[in-house]
Every structure is written in structure tokens, then in C-alpha cells.
Amino acid sequence: MRFDLTDLGLFLAVIEAGSITRGAAEAGLSLPAASERLRDMEAAGEVLLLHRGRRGIVPTEAGEALAHHARTILHQMAEMRGELGRYAKGMRANVCVFANTAAITEYLPERLATWMAQHPRVDLDLKERQSSEIARSVSAGFAEIGILSGAAATAGLTLRPFAIDRLVAVLAPSHALAEKPQLRFADLLDQHFVGLTGGALQQHLEMQAARLGANIKLRVALRSFDGICRLAGEGVGIGIVPEAAARRAKRSAGIAIARLQDDWATRRLSVCVRSEPELTPLARSLFQHLASRSSSPLR
């Protein structure tokens, strides 16, 4: 049987996503192309690799064995590129990092700047995901490094402190709730919101609302926390953003800030890997760099 690296990467993406559609998107392939590759893999090996059901896909015993070897092969390829990158002129290496919304928008730009400047031949495959998905991806070997909140199940992973991230509500100074220094999320759900376009944080907020038996009344979705703060300050709706973003926006936008009292709104972010000794030299260097610069709690 002949499987190329694209086949192996696709197979791992499908298993991690639990869906051929989402796995194909993760691997950068169209659904027809991905489905054909998976069928060819099964035909070449004359073995069933995936159980396909209405709720998604599950690997067979043979599929689990293939996934184990695929992770090993892809890891060795990454390690080879990292090692040769030290010697080969122009050869580039890649490190895959999954992180939640707060980490990507508020912390990583500054944290990555010096390390990437020191490693000009390294590219980062940086993707935004929810913390639970990040934990699964790192555990499965699909991402080398993850940055996630303590809400995710992280058994078996190596974790180091990264940052304390607090979520706050931003409102117009004239809003009836603007004088309250702290609010509960449940008390806001009868209000209209300004939200984030897609992203892990917006999904997280929608999940918390669903747990309370409610839906977020979204007036408009924007691509940046600064935009959310600006519209919230004008009375368009309430925004939920990281405290660091709210404090920064307050310098230019007239907003009131109230901390959310819910336990889930104060998140300890960690940088995690499956096994530090298994990392490529470059991934290990980045992991140690991120772990060494953990920030103190915001005040």
C-alpha cells in the first residue's frame, strides 16, 4: 500500500474532527477530493479504516493503527525538516500551534515577535480553536503546541502557565447596568449584544448561554475586540471581551467595564504539549519560550 504525506495528514485531520467534511477543510482539500483519497487508501490496503455514521466517523481498529503510524511519520518528517533547517540554506521549517481567541489576539503577537525574529526560517501554522478541541488535537499529535484554558480536559499533557485571562462586559456609560462593577452573564441575556465574527470565544459564549437555556441576541458581529468596544460604547449592544482588550480600548472609546462574576469568565491559560522530549528542536524552543514568559494576573 502507498500512502503519501497528504493522505496521512488528511486521515489524522478526519479522525481529529470526527467528520470527513471538517477534516477535509482542515487539510485544505475539497470534500470530493478528500473522500476519494480516503476511499483509495482503503482500497489500496484492502481494509476498512473508518466507520461512517450519521453522527460522524470513528476509526476502526485498523484505522487506529494507521493513525498511530501516521503521527509517528509526520512527527519524524517535522523533526527532519527542523534538523536540516539548521544547515540547508533557504530550507524552511514549520511549527503547528493551536490557541484560543484570547491567546491569539491579546498575548501571542507580543510573545511570538522576538522568537520569530530569531528564527527567520521558521513558519508558524497558527489556528484558532476552542480549548477542548486544542487539548484533543495536541493529545492526538495533530498540533505540536496548544494554548488553552483550564476548562479543557488535559490529562496526559505537559502544561506550563501562560497567562490569566478575564472576560468582562463592555457597555455604554449611559447603560442602566454601567454603574455595576460586576455582573453575572445570566443577568445580561435579555440584552442585545455586539459579538465576534466566528471564533472560539464567540462559540464559548454561545455555549454558556445555551447552558442557561438562552440564546445570545446578536445585533452585529465584528472581527476585532476594538470594534466591539467602540460599538458597545455607542450603545449598540453589550460586548464580552478579554479585560486586556477592554482596558486598551477604554483609552480611546468611552465605555464602562464590568467584570463577569461567573467562574468560567476567569481563565488560567496554559501552554501545552503532548511530550516535551518528543518535540522537534524548534517546537521545543518555542514551547520553552512561551512558557518562560507567562504573564501575571491582570489587576
Secondary-structure map:
Layout: H1 5-17, H2 20-27, H3 31-45, E1 50-53, E2 56-59, H4 61-85, E3 93-99, H5 101-118, E4 122-128, H6 131-140, E5 145-149, E6 158-171, E7 182-183, E8 192-196, H7 199-211, E9 217-222, H8 225-233, E10 239-242, H9 243-250, E11 256-260, E12 266-273, H10 281-292
Parallel strand pairs: 3-4, 3-5, 7-11, 8-9
Antiparallel strand pairs: 1-2, 5-12, 6-10, 6-11, 6-12
Structural summary, described in words:
The structure is a single chain. The chain is an alpha/beta fold. The protein folds into three domains: 5-76, Orthogonal Bundle (Arc Repressor Mutant, subunit A), CATH 1.10.10.10; 83-163 and 267-292, Periplasmic binding protein-like II (D-Maltodextrin-Binding Protein, domain 2), CATH 3.40.190.10; 166-265, Periplasmic binding protein-like II (D-Maltodextrin-Binding Protein, domain 2, 3-Layer(aba) Sandwich). Helix content is 44%, strand content 24%. The protein has ten helices and twelve strands. It has helices at residues 5-17, 20-27, 31-45, 61-85, 101-118, 131-140, 199-211, 225-233, 243-250, 281-292; strands at 50-53, 56-59, 93-99, 122-128, 145-149, 158-171, 182-183, 192-196, 217-222, 239-242, 256-260, 266-273. The strands form three sheets. Strands 3, 4, 5, 6, 7, 10, 11 and 12 form an eight-stranded mixed β-sheet that branches. Strands 1-2 form a two-stranded antiparallel sheet. Strand 3, helix 5 (101-118) and strand 4 (122-128) form a beta-alpha-beta unit. Helix 1 packs across helix 2 (20-27) and helix 2 packs across helix 3. The longest helix has 25 residues, at 61-85. The N and C termini lie far apart (58 Å).
